[in-house]
Design goal:
The protein is an alpha/beta fold. It has helices spanning about 20-35, 45-55, 70-80, 95-105, 125-135, 140-145, 165-170, 175-180, 200-215, 230, 250-255, 270-275, 290, 305-320, 320-335, 340-354, and strands spanning about 5-10, 35-40, 60, 85-90, 110-115, 135-140, 155-160, 185-190, 220-225, 240-245, 255-260, 280-285, 300. The radius of gyration is 21 Å and the shape is elongated.
Amino acid sequence: MPTKALKVIQINSMKNWAGGEAHVFLLCRELMSLGESVVLVCRPGSAIDQKSREAKIPVLNLPLKGAWDLKSAWILAKYCRENAIDIVHAHLGRDYWTANLAKFFNPKLKVVMTRHIRAPLKNSVLHRWLYRKADKVIAVSQTVKKAITVFPPEKITVIHNGIDIDKFSAAKPGILHAELGIGAETKIVGMVGRVNPSKGHETFLRSIPEIQAQCPNTVFVVVGGGAYIAELKNLNGAVRFLGPRDNIPAIMKDLDVFVLASLNEPFGLVTVEAMAAGAPVVATNTGGTAEIITDGETGLLIPPKDPVKLAQAVIRVLTDDKLAGKLKEGAFRRAQIFNIRDMAINTLHVYSRA
């Protein structure tokens, strides 16, 4: 770790709250607990703005209107110069531009960029200029690292996302059963996270009739928001759409099976959350998920877009208490390595090398 406290800017321009915003929020909080000076740059009134202020994380609001927001970049460069900022850490594609334009105005700045998704980066002349400006790059999984070949490999460090393990393991069970009005003997199978076609909710819904036929005393839930919900409701009326929630640890605690049905998952932070809460996991074998789950030991892996295989895996867990117990124990042990403290310390190492 650095010998002196660093002054770090984190940038996140998203208005809504999703996994990426949770990552930045947790990173800010953990870096502060390690004694580092952190300021979050975000849009006024955004979800991360509100949550960060409530958590006493210092916030600087900027317009952050897009990649070529020169005004925001100029203000950021000026702020960094006046406050002797060491590192600017950007987490979204458009924020890479803000960070590196700020470096153009203030060449002493060091820029770190985290890539959270597998989508390949653009390779135009302008984009290559942008990528050359980055001092260090963090990929959230080996899968993501392989997708960002525009960067020299020596600039890239893989740091898996981390969570507050204790928050999920210590959650009290029973809240979801009470809300749904069901007894403890009724099983709950669910998906948690942003509701989007890429997350495979359609596959999950199409697997339900077979699960119901074998395990009739089971209810199915989808937790999360998104316009796609309206379309999904026409596929299977048995599913209860619970919308976005702020009590995810308690919800995870009540799941008898957590399903991740993503078509292409860069890492899968929500999978680690389920593991830490003690929910057996059935997940598609895509992207970063294979870096988290060992099939048959910490969860069950299935092919994407295969409702039959998904149903079979869920039925196995629901009807085999020994298997469910084995998966829960293995998953909880595995989740320990994805903790927020190690993630923050490893990020600090990247800052010091920058």
